[in-house]
Amino acid sequence: MTAGTVVVGAGLAAAHTISTLRGHGYDAPITLIGEEPELPYERPALSKAYLQGKGGELYVHDAGWYADHDVQLRIGSRAVAIERTARRLVLDPGGLVQYEHLVVATGARPRRLAIPGAQLPEVHTLRTRADSDRLRKVLTRDERLVIIGAGWIGLEVAAAARAAGCSVTVLEYSPLPLQRVLGDRLARYFLDLHLGNGVDLRTGVTVRAIERSGRALTVLVDADRIDADAVVMAVGVEPNADLVADLATDRGTGGIAVDEHLRTADPHIFAAGDVAAAHNTALGRRLRVEHWDNAIRQGTLAASTIAGAGGEYDWHPYFFTDQYDLGMEYVGHGDPGDRVVIRGSLVSGEFIAFWLAGDRMTAAMNVNTWDVNADLRRLVGRDIPVGRLTDPHIPLGEL
Ligand SMILES: Cc1cc2nc3c(=O)[nH]c(=O)nc-3n(C[C@H](O)[C@H](O)[C@H](O)COP(=O)(O)OP(=O)(O)OC[C@H]3O[C@@H](n4cnc5c(N)ncnc54)[C@H](O)[C@@H]3O)c2cc1C
Fold first, then answer.
1. pTM of the predicted model as reported, rounded to 2 decimal places
2. Atom 31 (ligand 1): residue with closest C-alpha?
Protein backbone atom coordinates (compact mmCIF):
# COMPACT_ATOMS: atom_id res chain seq x y z
CA MET A 1 0.00 0.00 0.00
CA THR A 2 1.30 3.50 -0.86
CA ALA A 3 2.28 5.86 1.96
CA GLY A 4 -0.19 8.34 0.46
CA THR A 5 -0.15 12.12 0.80
CA VAL A 6 1.07 14.09 3.78
CA VAL A 7 0.06 17.73 4.01
CA VAL A 8 2.18 19.84 6.33
CA GLY A 9 0.64 23.07 7.60
CA ALA A 10 -3.02 22.88 8.58
CA GLY A 11 -4.34 26.08 7.01
CA LEU A 12 -6.57 27.03 4.13
CA ALA A 13 -4.46 25.58 1.31
CA ALA A 14 -4.12 22.31 3.24
CA ALA A 15 -7.86 21.96 3.81
CA HIS A 16 -8.56 22.45 0.12
CA THR A 17 -5.80 20.06 -0.91
CA ILE A 18 -7.40 17.35 1.16
CA SER A 19 -11.01 17.91 0.12
CA THR A 20 -10.00 18.04 -3.55
CA LEU A 21 -7.97 14.81 -3.28
CA ARG A 22 -10.94 12.98 -1.78
CA GLY A 23 -13.21 14.67 -4.34
CA HIS A 24 -11.08 13.14 -7.11
CA GLY A 25 -11.61 9.69 -5.58
CA TYR A 26 -8.06 9.52 -4.17
CA ASP A 27 -8.24 6.58 -1.74
CA ALA A 28 -4.66 6.38 -0.41
CA PRO A 29 -3.91 7.53 3.17
CA ILE A 30 -3.93 11.27 3.89
CA THR A 31 -2.22 12.78 6.94
CA LEU A 32 -2.56 16.41 8.03
CA ILE A 33 0.15 17.91 10.23
CA GLY A 34 -0.33 21.31 11.86
CA GLU A 35 1.52 23.12 14.63
CA GLU A 36 -1.42 25.30 15.75
CA PRO A 37 -3.79 23.56 18.18
CA GLU A 38 -6.59 24.06 15.64
CA LEU A 39 -8.20 22.43 12.65
CA PRO A 40 -7.75 24.49 9.45
CA TYR A 41 -9.59 27.80 9.68
CA GLU A 42 -10.11 30.98 7.66
CA ARG A 43 -7.99 33.99 8.64
CA PRO A 44 -9.59 37.04 6.92
CA ALA A 45 -12.13 37.65 9.73
CA LEU A 46 -9.29 37.78 12.29
CA SER A 47 -8.63 41.42 11.38
CA LYS A 48 -12.29 42.27 10.68
CA ALA A 49 -15.55 40.85 12.12
CA TYR A 50 -13.91 38.34 14.50
CA LEU A 51 -11.61 41.03 15.89
CA GLN A 52 -14.71 43.12 16.57
CA GLY A 53 -16.24 40.30 18.57
CA LYS A 54 -18.74 39.30 15.88
CA GLY A 55 -18.78 35.50 15.94
CA GLY A 56 -19.13 33.45 12.75
CA GLU A 57 -17.65 30.05 12.03
CA LEU A 58 -13.99 30.08 11.01
CA TYR A 59 -13.35 26.35 10.45
CA VAL A 60 -13.11 25.14 6.85
CA HIS A 61 -14.50 21.70 7.86
CA ASP A 62 -15.68 20.48 11.26
CA ALA A 63 -13.86 17.68 13.09
CA GLY A 64 -16.36 15.06 11.87
CA TRP A 65 -15.51 15.85 8.24
CA TYR A 66 -11.90 14.67 8.69
CA ALA A 67 -13.05 11.43 10.27
CA ASP A 68 -15.66 10.90 7.55
CA HIS A 69 -13.00 11.41 4.86
CA ASP A 70 -10.46 9.17 6.53
CA VAL A 71 -7.89 11.90 7.20
CA GLN A 72 -5.38 11.21 9.93
CA LEU A 73 -4.86 14.34 12.04
CA ARG A 74 -1.56 15.25 13.71
CA ILE A 75 -2.66 18.62 15.08
CA GLY A 76 -0.26 20.26 17.55
CA SER A 77 2.75 18.71 15.77
CA ARG A 78 5.44 20.69 14.01
CA ALA A 79 7.34 19.25 11.05
CA VAL A 80 11.03 19.99 11.64
CA ALA A 81 12.83 18.19 8.80
CA ILE A 82 12.30 16.24 5.61
CA GLU A 83 14.37 13.12 4.91
CA ARG A 84 13.97 13.25 1.16
CA THR A 85 15.72 10.02 0.22
CA ALA A 86 13.65 8.01 2.70
CA ARG A 87 10.54 10.17 1.98
CA ARG A 88 9.88 10.82 5.64
CA LEU A 89 8.93 13.81 7.68
CA VAL A 90 10.37 14.34 11.16
CA LEU A 91 7.93 15.74 13.72
CA ASP A 92 8.26 17.64 16.99
CA PRO A 93 7.23 16.32 19.45
CA GLY A 94 8.50 12.99 18.18
CA GLY A 95 7.51 10.78 15.28
CA LEU A 96 8.28 10.05 11.66
CA VAL A 97 5.67 10.10 8.90
CA GLN A 98 6.19 8.38 5.56
CA TYR A 99 4.89 9.98 2.35
CA GLU A 100 4.54 9.25 -1.32
CA HIS A 101 3.56 12.85 -1.97
CA LEU A 102 4.22 15.74 0.38
CA VAL A 103 2.39 19.07 0.12
CA VAL A 104 4.07 21.90 2.01
CA ALA A 105 1.35 24.44 2.89
CA THR A 106 3.02 26.13 5.84
CA GLY A 107 1.89 29.69 5.09
CA ALA A 108 3.78 32.66 6.45
CA ARG A 109 4.65 34.31 9.76
CA PRO A 110 4.51 38.01 10.66
CA ARG A 111 7.71 40.01 10.52
CA ARG A 112 8.88 42.11 13.45
CA LEU A 113 10.99 45.22 12.91
CA ALA A 114 14.51 44.92 14.32
CA ILE A 115 14.11 47.90 16.66
CA PRO A 116 14.46 48.18 20.44
CA GLY A 117 11.22 47.19 22.18
CA ALA A 118 9.86 45.08 19.32
CA GLN A 119 9.57 42.05 21.60
CA LEU A 120 7.67 43.76 24.45
CA PRO A 121 4.51 41.84 25.41
CA GLU A 122 2.23 44.76 24.49
CA VAL A 123 3.59 44.69 20.91
CA HIS A 124 1.24 42.44 18.93
CA THR A 125 1.38 40.76 15.55
CA LEU A 126 -1.67 39.20 13.89
CA ARG A 127 -1.69 35.85 12.15
CA THR A 128 -3.55 33.32 14.27
CA ARG A 129 -6.88 33.10 16.05
CA ALA A 130 -4.95 33.32 19.36
CA ASP A 131 -3.33 36.59 18.17
CA SER A 132 -6.76 38.00 17.30
CA ASP A 133 -8.21 36.94 20.68
CA ARG A 134 -5.36 38.75 22.48
CA LEU A 135 -5.77 41.89 20.40
CA ARG A 136 -9.54 41.92 20.86
CA LYS A 137 -9.04 42.23 24.63
CA VAL A 138 -6.96 45.37 23.98
CA LEU A 139 -9.65 46.87 21.73
CA THR A 140 -12.44 46.31 24.27
CA ARG A 141 -10.56 48.49 26.77
CA ASP A 142 -10.83 51.63 24.54
CA GLU A 143 -7.09 51.90 24.52
CA ARG A 144 -4.62 54.02 22.61
CA LEU A 145 -3.38 51.85 19.79
CA VAL A 146 -0.39 52.50 17.54
CA ILE A 147 -0.23 50.42 14.38
CA ILE A 148 3.07 50.19 12.54
CA GLY A 149 2.48 49.55 8.84
CA ALA A 150 -0.39 50.75 6.64
CA GLY A 151 -0.79 47.61 4.55
CA TRP A 152 -4.04 45.66 4.32
CA ILE A 153 -3.83 44.12 7.78
CA GLY A 154 -2.70 47.31 9.50
CA LEU A 155 -5.55 49.26 7.94
CA GLU A 156 -8.15 46.59 8.71
CA VAL A 157 -7.04 46.56 12.34
CA ALA A 158 -7.26 50.38 12.37
CA ALA A 159 -10.88 50.18 11.17
CA ALA A 160 -11.75 47.52 13.78
CA ALA A 161 -10.08 49.54 16.53
CA ARG A 162 -11.94 52.70 15.57
CA ALA A 163 -15.22 50.75 15.60
CA ALA A 164 -14.33 49.68 19.15
CA GLY A 165 -13.74 53.30 20.16
CA CYS A 166 -9.94 53.22 20.44
CA SER A 167 -7.78 56.18 19.51
CA VAL A 168 -5.64 54.95 16.63
CA THR A 169 -2.37 56.15 15.15
CA VAL A 170 -0.99 54.41 12.05
CA LEU A 171 2.67 54.90 11.14
CA GLU A 172 3.78 54.19 7.59
CA TYR A 173 7.26 54.43 6.10
CA SER A 174 6.11 55.01 2.49
CA PRO A 175 4.73 58.35 1.31
CA LEU A 176 1.22 56.80 1.00
CA PRO A 177 -0.49 53.68 2.36
CA LEU A 178 -0.79 50.74 -0.07
CA GLN A 179 1.12 52.76 -2.65
CA ARG A 180 3.12 49.80 -3.97
CA VAL A 181 -0.10 47.94 -4.79
CA LEU A 182 -2.53 50.67 -5.81
CA GLY A 183 -0.39 53.57 -7.06
CA ASP A 184 -0.79 57.18 -5.90
CA ARG A 185 -4.41 57.97 -6.79
CA LEU A 186 -6.10 55.04 -5.08
CA ALA A 187 -3.57 55.08 -2.24
CA ARG A 188 -4.71 58.63 -1.50
CA TYR A 189 -8.30 57.38 -1.50
CA PHE A 190 -7.46 54.91 1.30
CA LEU A 191 -5.50 57.60 3.17
CA ASP A 192 -8.56 59.89 3.10
CA LEU A 193 -10.84 57.03 4.15
CA HIS A 194 -8.84 56.53 7.34
CA LEU A 195 -8.30 60.22 8.07
CA GLY A 196 -12.06 60.68 7.64
CA ASN A 197 -12.67 57.97 10.21
CA GLY A 198 -10.52 59.65 12.83
CA VAL A 199 -7.27 57.72 12.38
CA ASP A 200 -4.07 59.70 12.84
CA LEU A 201 -2.36 58.17 9.79
CA ARG A 202 1.18 59.47 9.39
CA THR A 203 3.14 58.60 6.25
CA GLY A 204 6.80 58.97 5.34
CA VAL A 205 7.82 58.27 8.95
CA THR A 206 10.34 55.88 10.50
CA VAL A 207 9.74 54.13 13.81
CA ARG A 208 12.97 53.98 15.79
CA ALA A 209 12.07 52.25 19.06
CA ILE A 210 9.32 51.31 21.48
CA GLU A 211 9.95 52.08 25.14
CA ARG A 212 8.08 51.22 28.29
CA SER A 213 7.00 54.27 30.28
CA GLY A 214 5.22 53.28 33.47
CA ARG A 215 2.29 51.02 32.55
CA ALA A 216 2.17 52.36 29.00
CA LEU A 217 4.46 52.45 25.97
CA THR A 218 6.08 55.27 24.06
CA VAL A 219 6.72 54.86 20.35
CA LEU A 220 9.67 56.86 19.07
CA VAL A 221 9.00 57.93 15.52
CA ASP A 222 11.47 60.30 13.89
CA ALA A 223 11.66 63.21 16.36
CA ASP A 224 8.20 62.50 17.88
CA ARG A 225 7.12 60.42 20.86
CA ILE A 226 3.66 58.82 20.80
CA ASP A 227 2.11 57.30 23.93
CA ALA A 228 0.25 54.03 23.48
CA ASP A 229 -1.26 51.23 25.54
CA ALA A 230 -0.52 48.69 22.82
CA VAL A 231 1.25 48.47 19.48
CA VAL A 232 0.44 46.30 16.48
CA MET A 233 3.29 45.50 14.11
CA ALA A 234 1.77 44.91 10.69
CA VAL A 235 4.86 45.09 8.51
CA GLY A 236 4.40 42.06 6.30
CA VAL A 237 5.16 38.36 6.52
CA GLU A 238 7.96 35.88 5.83
CA PRO A 239 7.11 32.58 4.11
CA ASN A 240 7.62 29.49 6.30
CA ALA A 241 9.89 27.89 3.70
CA ASP A 242 12.64 26.57 5.99
CA LEU A 243 11.62 22.91 5.63
CA VAL A 244 12.72 22.81 2.01
CA ALA A 245 15.37 25.52 2.11
CA ASP A 246 17.93 23.15 0.60
CA LEU A 247 15.66 22.31 -2.30
CA ALA A 248 13.83 25.20 -3.82
CA THR A 249 13.91 28.72 -2.42
CA ASP A 250 12.81 31.53 -4.73
CA ARG A 251 15.47 34.20 -4.34
CA GLY A 252 13.14 37.15 -4.92
CA THR A 253 10.40 36.24 -2.45
CA GLY A 254 11.90 33.64 -0.10
CA GLY A 255 9.02 31.29 -1.01
CA ILE A 256 9.29 27.68 -2.14
CA ALA A 257 9.96 27.69 -5.88
CA VAL A 258 7.46 25.50 -7.75
CA ASP A 259 6.38 25.10 -11.36
CA GLU A 260 2.91 25.82 -12.79
CA HIS A 261 1.70 22.49 -11.38
CA LEU A 262 3.08 23.43 -7.92
CA ARG A 263 5.80 20.78 -8.05
CA THR A 264 9.28 21.45 -6.63
CA ALA A 265 12.44 20.04 -8.21
CA ASP A 266 11.72 16.89 -6.15
CA PRO A 267 8.75 15.25 -7.94
CA HIS A 268 7.35 13.98 -4.63
CA ILE A 269 7.18 17.43 -3.01
CA PHE A 270 4.69 20.23 -3.74
CA ALA A 271 3.99 23.65 -2.24
CA ALA A 272 0.75 25.65 -2.13
CA GLY A 273 -0.63 28.87 -0.64
CA ASP A 274 1.28 31.77 0.94
CA VAL A 275 4.53 29.78 1.07
CA ALA A 276 4.63 28.93 -2.65
CA ALA A 277 6.42 30.99 -5.29
CA ALA A 278 4.82 29.43 -8.34
CA HIS A 279 5.17 29.97 -12.07
CA ASN A 280 2.01 31.79 -13.21
CA THR A 281 1.27 31.04 -16.88
CA ALA A 282 -1.17 33.98 -17.27
CA LEU A 283 1.58 36.46 -16.33
CA GLY A 284 4.56 34.46 -17.57
CA ARG A 285 6.48 34.77 -14.32
CA ARG A 286 6.86 33.46 -10.83
CA LEU A 287 4.59 34.92 -8.13
CA ARG A 288 4.16 34.47 -4.41
CA VAL A 289 0.68 35.60 -3.39
CA GLU A 290 -0.56 36.08 0.19
CA HIS A 291 -4.30 35.92 -0.38
CA TRP A 292 -7.27 33.78 0.57
CA ASP A 293 -8.40 32.96 -2.98
CA ASN A 294 -4.89 31.86 -3.95
CA ALA A 295 -4.62 29.46 -1.00
CA ILE A 296 -7.91 27.82 -1.98
CA ARG A 297 -7.06 27.58 -5.67
CA GLN A 298 -3.50 26.37 -5.13
CA GLY A 299 -4.61 23.79 -2.58
CA THR A 300 -7.05 22.54 -5.17
CA LEU A 301 -4.39 22.56 -7.92
CA ALA A 302 -1.79 20.67 -5.84
CA ALA A 303 -4.39 17.95 -5.25
CA SER A 304 -5.36 17.84 -8.93
CA THR A 305 -1.70 17.41 -9.91
CA ILE A 306 -1.24 14.56 -7.43
CA ALA A 307 -4.48 12.90 -8.53
CA GLY A 308 -3.46 13.24 -12.21
CA ALA A 309 -6.44 15.48 -12.98
CA GLY A 310 -4.35 18.21 -14.68
CA GLY A 311 -4.67 21.97 -14.37
CA GLU A 312 -2.09 24.73 -14.01
CA TYR A 313 -1.53 28.04 -12.24
CA ASP A 314 -3.17 30.16 -14.92
CA TRP A 315 -5.40 32.58 -12.99
CA HIS A 316 -4.99 36.24 -12.08
CA PRO A 317 -4.54 37.00 -8.37
CA TYR A 318 -7.63 38.12 -6.44
CA PHE A 319 -8.12 39.63 -3.00
CA PHE A 320 -10.67 41.56 -0.99
CA THR A 321 -10.82 43.86 2.00
CA ASP A 322 -13.46 45.38 4.28
CA GLN A 323 -12.73 48.62 6.14
CA TYR A 324 -15.48 50.76 7.75
CA ASP A 325 -18.28 50.82 5.16
CA LEU A 326 -15.91 50.12 2.26
CA GLY A 327 -15.86 46.66 0.75
CA MET A 328 -13.74 45.93 -2.28
CA GLU A 329 -12.37 43.18 -4.50
CA TYR A 330 -9.26 43.43 -6.67
CA VAL A 331 -8.30 41.12 -9.51
CA GLY A 332 -5.12 41.18 -11.58
CA HIS A 333 -1.57 42.30 -10.95
CA GLY A 334 -1.27 45.99 -11.71
CA ASP A 335 1.91 48.00 -11.50
CA PRO A 336 1.69 51.09 -9.25
CA GLY A 337 2.92 53.15 -12.21
CA ASP A 338 0.09 51.98 -14.50
CA ARG A 339 -2.51 54.50 -15.62
CA VAL A 340 -5.70 54.40 -13.52
CA VAL A 341 -9.15 55.16 -14.92
CA ILE A 342 -12.43 55.16 -12.99
CA ARG A 343 -15.95 54.03 -13.89
CA GLY A 344 -18.35 55.64 -11.42
CA SER A 345 -17.25 58.25 -8.90
CA LEU A 346 -14.69 58.25 -6.12
CA VAL A 347 -16.83 60.83 -4.29
CA SER A 348 -19.88 58.54 -4.14
CA GLY A 349 -17.69 55.69 -2.86
CA GLU A 350 -19.08 53.31 -5.50
CA PHE A 351 -16.77 52.77 -8.45
CA ILE A 352 -14.57 50.44 -10.44
CA ALA A 353 -10.90 51.34 -10.92
CA PHE A 354 -8.97 49.93 -13.87
CA TRP A 355 -5.16 49.79 -14.15
CA LEU A 356 -3.87 50.04 -17.73
CA ALA A 357 -0.51 49.51 -19.40
CA GLY A 358 -1.23 51.12 -22.79
CA ASP A 359 -4.72 49.77 -23.59
CA ARG A 360 -4.08 46.46 -21.78
CA MET A 361 -5.92 46.07 -18.51
CA THR A 362 -3.53 44.83 -15.82
CA ALA A 363 -5.95 44.93 -12.87
CA ALA A 364 -9.39 46.06 -11.78
CA MET A 365 -10.90 46.88 -8.39
CA ASN A 366 -14.61 47.10 -7.60
CA VAL A 367 -15.42 49.25 -4.57
CA ASN A 368 -18.89 48.96 -3.02
CA THR A 369 -20.05 47.67 -6.41
CA TRP A 370 -21.06 44.03 -6.38
CA ASP A 371 -21.51 41.00 -8.63
CA VAL A 372 -19.03 42.36 -11.19
CA ASN A 373 -15.86 40.55 -10.25
CA ALA A 374 -16.37 37.63 -12.61
CA ASP A 375 -16.72 40.12 -15.50
CA LEU A 376 -13.60 41.97 -14.35
CA ARG A 377 -11.60 38.74 -14.10
CA ARG A 378 -12.53 38.01 -17.73
CA LEU A 379 -11.39 41.48 -18.85
CA VAL A 380 -7.98 41.53 -17.14
CA GLY A 381 -5.16 41.01 -19.64
CA ARG A 382 -7.25 42.29 -22.58
CA ASP A 383 -6.90 45.47 -24.66
CA ILE A 384 -9.92 47.74 -24.13
CA PRO A 385 -10.21 51.39 -25.21
CA VAL A 386 -10.47 53.71 -22.19
CA GLY A 387 -13.63 55.40 -23.48
CA ARG A 388 -15.51 52.11 -23.35
CA LEU A 389 -14.20 51.20 -19.92
CA THR A 390 -15.34 54.43 -18.32
CA ASP A 391 -18.70 54.59 -20.10
CA PRO A 392 -21.25 53.39 -17.51
CA HIS A 393 -23.83 52.84 -20.27
CA ILE A 394 -21.82 49.94 -21.73
CA PRO A 395 -22.40 46.91 -19.49
CA LEU A 396 -19.17 45.24 -18.36
CA GLY A 397 -20.40 42.01 -19.91
CA GLU A 398 -20.39 43.72 -23.34
CA LEU A 399 -16.89 45.18 -23.21
C1 LIG B 1 -5.43 38.64 9.85
C2 LIG B 1 -5.48 38.24 8.41
C3 LIG B 1 -6.43 38.79 7.56
C4 LIG B 1 -6.47 38.43 6.22
N5 LIG B 1 -7.40 39.00 5.41
C6 LIG B 1 -7.45 38.67 4.10
C7 LIG B 1 -8.40 39.29 3.23
O8 LIG B 1 -9.21 40.13 3.64
N9 LIG B 1 -8.39 38.94 1.92
C10 LIG B 1 -7.53 38.03 1.42
O11 LIG B 1 -7.56 37.75 0.22
N12 LIG B 1 -6.61 37.41 2.23
C13 LIG B 1 -6.56 37.72 3.55
N14 LIG B 1 -5.62 37.12 4.37
C15 LIG B 1 -4.65 36.18 3.79
C16 LIG B 1 -5.14 34.73 3.86
O17 LIG B 1 -5.73 34.45 5.08
C18 LIG B 1 -3.93 33.83 3.61
O19 LIG B 1 -3.49 34.09 2.30
C20 LIG B 1 -4.24 32.36 3.77
O21 LIG B 1 -4.60 32.06 5.09
C22 LIG B 1 -3.03 31.51 3.39
O23 LIG B 1 -3.33 30.17 3.59
P24 LIG B 1 -2.17 29.07 3.73
O25 LIG B 1 -2.90 27.79 3.88
O26 LIG B 1 -1.18 29.26 2.66
O27 LIG B 1 -1.41 29.43 5.08
P28 LIG B 1 -1.93 29.56 6.57
O29 LIG B 1 -3.41 29.86 6.60
O30 LIG B 1 -1.01 30.53 7.23
O31 LIG B 1 -1.70 28.12 7.20
C32 LIG B 1 -0.42 27.58 7.38
C33 LIG B 1 -0.42 26.74 8.65
O34 LIG B 1 0.80 25.99 8.67
C35 LIG B 1 1.28 25.94 10.00
N36 LIG B 1 2.73 25.60 9.96
C37 LIG B 1 3.75 26.38 9.57
N38 LIG B 1 4.93 25.70 9.65
C39 LIG B 1 4.62 24.46 10.09
C40 LIG B 1 5.41 23.30 10.37
N41 LIG B 1 6.74 23.28 10.19
N42 LIG B 1 4.78 22.19 10.82
C43 LIG B 1 3.43 22.19 11.01
N44 LIG B 1 2.64 23.25 10.75
C45 LIG B 1 3.23 24.38 10.30
C46 LIG B 1 1.00 27.34 10.50
O47 LIG B 1 1.04 27.38 11.92
C48 LIG B 1 -0.42 27.56 9.93
O49 LIG B 1 -1.39 27.06 10.82
C50 LIG B 1 -5.55 37.48 5.72
C51 LIG B 1 -4.58 36.92 6.59
C52 LIG B 1 -4.53 37.29 7.92
C53 LIG B 1 -3.49 36.70 8.83
1. 0.97
2. 11
